[in-house]
Amino acid sequence: MSPRPMIRPPLQIQTLEIPTGEAGIDKTVGYMTDLIRAGAMWPHLRPLALRIVSGCPERDFSCMAEKIFQFVQMNMKFINDNYGVETLQTVPYMIGAMERGVAHGDCDDFTILIGALLKSLGFQTKIRVLKFMGGNNFSHVMLVANLRGAGWRELDGSVRSGEVNGVIRREQKDYPVII
Hints:
- The protein is of the alpha+beta class.
- The protein is built from five helices and six strands; from the N terminus they run H-H-H-E-H-E-H-E-E-E-E.
């Protein structure tokens, strides 16, 4: 990231009850959607997103999505949540951690940050959850972005290749476009 004054948002922690099973997945995705919306409206995010995509040709939505995706992958490290605890980070917290060189998160956090950055640039996005062969529960989440003329693209920032490779999907569920 380029040098600029550090943004240090206050650390806010909330403990919330999340039901088990698919109702819990729906509730978690609802919280993630709220964090994407709030993050996209954070005053420091759009200027950052504009700097990230500054090298893309006008209206090249594939380029813009790829630049945002690469930025998040280069500046965040995948680390699982505490065992048995679902942790969702806010966009200001993750950007502040990036500036300190300590940004980390799991698939939820990558989805929130990529989603907020793209939403701040006017992209339509939605959340997709996955169930894999051998598993009975949805256990992975990623962002899907509308690249306009190029259709919808999966952006799984928590996997370095950009796609879930080597694992066979059993089922997927898309949530509505984030307004």
